[in-house]
Amino acid sequence: MQSVARVTGHERGFVLAPPSADYDHRFRVLVPNHEMEMCGHATLGARMRSRRGQSKQDALGAAILGRCRLDRPIQ
């Protein structure tokens, strides 16, 4: 994952399997030189792509709760 961020030169978000049944998924954000605790744009994008109305994700051990309302399909 780190190598993808290095090659592109920008932050990259990765949606992974959840660390436990308490979460819907695990989310990691990496930039060329390190892993970030949070990246708002990537987090919102991942949540919208998951198409879940409400979800709980793990980001570096921190729980992120969110709700996403989609009025129309993402293309």
Would you kindly provide a written description of the structure presented here, covering whatever features stand out?
- The chain is of the alpha+beta class.
- It contains 2 helices and 5 strands.
- A hairpin with an 8-residue loop joins β1 and β2 (25-31).
- The protein starts with a helix and ends in an 8-residue tail after the last strand.
- The model has no long low-confidence stretch (mean pLDDT 76).
- The protein has helices at 2-8, 40-50, and strands spanning 12-16, 25-31, 34-36, 54-59, 62-67.
- Strands 1, 2, 3, 4 and 5 form a 5-stranded mixed sheet that branches.
- It has a single domain (2-61), classed as Diaminopimelate Epimerase, Chain A, domain 1, CATH 3.10.310.
- The longest helix has 11 residues, at 40-50.
